[in-house]
Amino acid sequence: IKLGFGFLTSEGLGGSKAEQARQFFENNFIMKDPNAENGVRYYQGKFLIRTKKPEDDMNVWIRFCPDPETLFKQTPLGKRFNPAAIVETSALSEAEAEAIERDPDQCDLVIRFRDTRAILGLLERPDADVVQLLLENLVQITGNFGHMFKFGAIGKSVQAIVTD
User: The whole model's pTM is what?
Assistant: First the structure.
């Protein structure tokens, strides 16, 4: 995930791809806020993806812009964007995932799949939507649903760039 986001937003891209990367970052992670320093905040959603079966040991913690101060770095060429700072991912043990899930400061949304087969089954269903997955009892979502919509919007933006 980190590598993919780094590639999508790399300043090393040329021409229209560099502009597309800039727009992707601005559209998905920059929020205008007159009360914030410099009038800008960064989207900092935190997601925990798990399965209902502890024996699957499938717990991934995804954090967007976890440290906004590292989004830009000073280089000999001036202040440059740091694509590696957009997303952090961590594989967690069951105990770590349980602790993070219970702490609202650590997790905005939990996406819990029935099992690893449900996750792998998504590869065969690229057009599956959340409602369909909920109705089929393949996924359970808890937490702040506003973040679910933002996560979906980021996913659609990634899909648009990849298929372009």
Answer: 0.85
